[in-house]
Amino acid sequence: MIILEKSRAAVVQTPMKDNPGTFILNPSPAGDEASVLVTGLGRSGTTMVSRVLSALGLFMGERVSKGTNEDKDFRNIIKSGSLGKFKKLCRERDEQFKRWGFKYPAARHNLVELTAAMRSPRVVVTSRDPLATAIRTAAATKAEVMPTFDQALRRTLRLLASVQQLECPVLLLSYEKALTRPRDCASALAGFCGIDADEETIEAASRKIHNGDQVYLS
After folding, report:
1. At what angle do helices 199-206 and 46-55 cross, to 10 degrees?
2. How many other C-beta atoms lie within 10 A of the C-beta of residue 145?
3. Is residue 37 helix, strand or coil?
4. Cβ distance 193 to 168 under 8 Å?
5. Which of 32, 34, 62, 151 is deepest in the core (most CB within 10 A)?
6. Which residues lie closer than 8 Å to 210 by C-beta, 6 or more apart?
7. Do the Cβ atoms of 70 and 215 come closer than 8 Å?
């Protein structure tokens, strides 16, 4: 059984008159430098967020996979479990860019360790209706829906527990709300990452937000 700690955000949380579908845990203004990690459950909208950030002008990798928009270098290093290589690549990116990011859902398994190795880390975590996530996963893996639904719920709880251990700023983002309020989503991502984007750029980035992405599905 997973026991969730009381969130530090509860201390500063105030009633919301509007529900934008985003919430910042450990809020802190973005400085001149930032490294952004995008994560969440598989098929929960991380690819969409990565494409929005790219459209906003944030560097999201040199060798990026077409379907999932993942930085292959970071993906391979994290899969290998080498924290030393991860730190080295982070320092290389720090030298190249004041702000940069990468997307990898499986990074959720060791968020504390990875963010400790990053300069001015900021984390974006996507959240999607667990049933929708399960159905999409079952279709992609030819699995049964109900066991996949159960797995999605359990993984969501584990993700929440991991996120609450972080001390760096975390933007929690609802996939469903992003679909209905794409401009608000793009604007929230820009503000969280410290990106000074004009209205034209925000509009272009918001067009990356849609369901059933054929590039991802192909």
Report:
1. 150
2. 13
3. strand
4. no
5. 34
6. 48, 179, 182
7. no
DSSP 7: P
Q: Report d(CA 204, CA 37) in Å as an integer.
A: 22
Nearest residue to 33 via CA among 112, 95, 103? 95
User: Mean pLDDT over residues 22-47, rounded?
Assistant: 96
Q: How does pLDDT run across 53-97, given as a tens digit for each residue?
A: 999 999 999 999 988 999 999 999 999 999 999 999 999 999 999
Domains of the chain: 30-210 (3.40.50.300)
**Separation in Å, CA 97 to CA 13, 94, 127, 144, 199:** 33, 5, 28, 44, 23
Q: What is the DSSP letter of 109?
A: G
Nearest CA to 187 out of 206, 172, 207 is that of 206
